[in-house]
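Thread amino acids onto this structure.
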């Protein structure tokens, strides 16, 4: 029996060792070997709660990349122990995930899930621009990607711009190139070379004169016209320069009003794409908790809000939106500047944000761990109270000593005055005695 338990324990240890072997613990010598391979590195702190939450996901990432034969090596580094290396890679918070490819390093800012991290690693590990050599390959890639950017044509200045742009934005999406004859028959181009984006069931061609720089156009077009939005997506949308129109709904308990409002916004995103695509991104968010924390207020469900993801300014309709006309009027009023704005990034809002974040942090700590909250906030308050008591007591003691000294000095002065008054009286008595004696002698 004991032998069986020992055997099982050995198997568990071997499996654990195998899993942990997929993630390499890195040290200060990492700078010397980083150029040898493509690395996906988690810079963590031992005391960081988010780092501990990421740890099992990170080992799953390492195991999956190893199993699939990916060239990416997965590692982790204690940034508090190797501060110099972490600083060289621009680590400012924990955890920080970076893909390091030669002299270039790319920050990962997406959801901390296995699939999302693996997709990021595989995208950046390959070539910046991937070639599509056949129609079959094109159709396969098109089925896999909701948004697909393709350069069509041969060598040209536009291709150079496309490649340069792709090297910067590869952290966000894939980029492909192809010849014109592999495109679907439904795609007709007025001129080649050209850059296209396939999404929303159609395709759209980049126009340098109408769309501005290629980089800006790709940033605006790399999202579907209507999509689910969470905190990570909203952060990403800040790079597009667009306002974000968000329907706040409860997906678990949909109501007739929420379904109607969501359908209205989807309709505007589709039917009015040419009118709004340059300035507005449409989507929905499940629940109001994130938005409430962002605007430091309370927004009802369902409702619609338009948000500037860069400045955190937001706009709300004056009354509930129930028709297409009311929705269009609200969007147009925001775009033409007649709608009343709230929030922003001014000084007052920043002070309010600091106070709100501090309050939220305290509430979160006490909610998750009351004992820890009492220790973290109660102990400093107790120390401050004790210091105030000691200072006040010492001050009172000093005042009492000074008063005692003043009393002693006053008593000494009174004694001196009494002595000074006593000497003249004694002198007068002596003079009177001598005068009396002389009078007797004369007699």
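Threaded sequence (443 positions):
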């Amino acid at each position: 029996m004991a032998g069986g338990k020992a055997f099982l324990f050995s198997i568990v240890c071997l499996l654990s060792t195998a899993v942990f072997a997929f993630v390499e613990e890195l040290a200060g010598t990492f700078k010397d070997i980083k150029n040898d391979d493509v690395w996906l590195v988690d810079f963590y702190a031992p005391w960081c709660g988010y780092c501990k939450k990421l740890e099992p996901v990170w080992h799953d990432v390492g195991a999956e990349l190893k199993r699939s034969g990916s060239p990416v090596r997965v590692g982790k580094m204690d940034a508090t122990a190797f501060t110099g290396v972490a600083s060289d890679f621009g680590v400012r918070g924990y955890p920080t995930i970076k893909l390091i490819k030669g002299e270039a390093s790319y920050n990962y800012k997406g959801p901390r899930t296995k699939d999302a991290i693996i997709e990021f690693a595989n995208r950046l590990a390959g070539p910046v621009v991937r070639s599509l050599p056949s129609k079959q390959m094109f159709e396969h890639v098109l089925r896999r990607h909701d948004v697909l950017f393709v350069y069509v044509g041969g060598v040209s200045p536009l291709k150079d711009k496309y490649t340069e742009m792709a090297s910067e934005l590869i952290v966000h999406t894939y980029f492909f190139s192809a010849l014109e004859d592999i495109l679907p028959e439904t795609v007709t181009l007025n001129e080649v070379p050209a850059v296209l984006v396939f999404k929303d069931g159609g395709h759209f061609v980049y126009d340098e004169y109408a769309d501005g720089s290629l980089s800006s156009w790709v940033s605006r077009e790399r999202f579907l016209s209507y999509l689910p939005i969470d905190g990570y997506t909203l952060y990403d949308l800040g790079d597009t320069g667009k306002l974000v129109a968000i329907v706040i709904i409860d997906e678990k308990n949909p109501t007739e009003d929420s379904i109607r409002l969501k359908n209205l916004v989807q309709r505007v995103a589709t039917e009015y794409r040419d009118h709004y695509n340059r300035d507005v991104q449409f989507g929905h968010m499940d629940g109001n908790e994130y938005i409430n924390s962002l605007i430091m207020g309370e927004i009802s469900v369902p409702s619609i809000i338009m948000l500037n993801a860069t400045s955190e300014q937001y706009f709300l309709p004056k009354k509930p939106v129930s028709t297409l006309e009311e929705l269009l009027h609200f969007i147009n009023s925001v775009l033409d500047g007649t709608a009343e704005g709230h929030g922003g990034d001014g000084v007052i809002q920043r002070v309010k944000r600091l106070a709100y974040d501090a309050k939220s942090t305290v509430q979160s700590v006490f909610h998750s761990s009351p004992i820890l909250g009492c220790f973290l906030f109660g102990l400093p308050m107790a120390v401050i109270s004790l210091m105030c008591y000691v200072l006040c007591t010492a001050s009172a003691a000093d005042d009492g000593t000074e008063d005692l000294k003043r009393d002693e000095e006053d008593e000494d002065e009174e004694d001196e005055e009494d002595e000074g008054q006593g000497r003249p009286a004694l002198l007068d008595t002596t003079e009177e005695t001598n005068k009396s004696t002389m009078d007797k002698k004369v007699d």
